Amino acid sequence: MGAYTKAYYAKNREKILASNKRARERDYGRHLQRAREYHHAHREEINARRRQHRKDNPEHYSLLRRARVYDLSPVGFKEMYDRQCGRCLVCGEHKKLAVDHDHKTGLIRGLLCSQCNTAIGLLKDSPELMRTLARYVEECAQQVQGG
Length: 147
Fold this sequence. Notes:
Helix content: over 70%
Number of helices: 8
Number of strands: 2
Number of domains: 2
Distance between the termini: 90 Å
CATH superfamily of the largest domain: His-Me finger endonucleases
CATH topology of the largest domain: His-Me finger endonuclease fold
Shape: elongated
Strand order of the largest sheet: 1-2
Order of helices and strands: HHHHHHEEHH
Structural class: mainly alpha
CATH architecture of the largest domain: 3-Layer(aba) Sandwich
């Protein structure tokens, strides 16, 4: 860009931006029509690129799904993950983590491995059932040790 053009743009910046905005608004229908035609003509190529991108970036799409399902942003998930040092809150294992949430309130409790998250679900999120199960396992362990 030459010195004259730079000076003209600097002096008339607001006027140029307003003119460009009016042109975009005026031509929006035509732009939209051209975009639709392009997409229709190149549908297979576009879909192949999308599939490849999804395949190449599984973590990105996993974060997007979590964001949609649990109303949790990718940044929010990353902060929780870092706070937990990438470990399950129950067993402490360093595995792929799932979002654990209260099924009644929908509130997110933390990140758990799929086994711990499934166990909580199978026990119907009931602390009483979990305590009963823990007592049962402890009693069985004592019986085996005692004879």
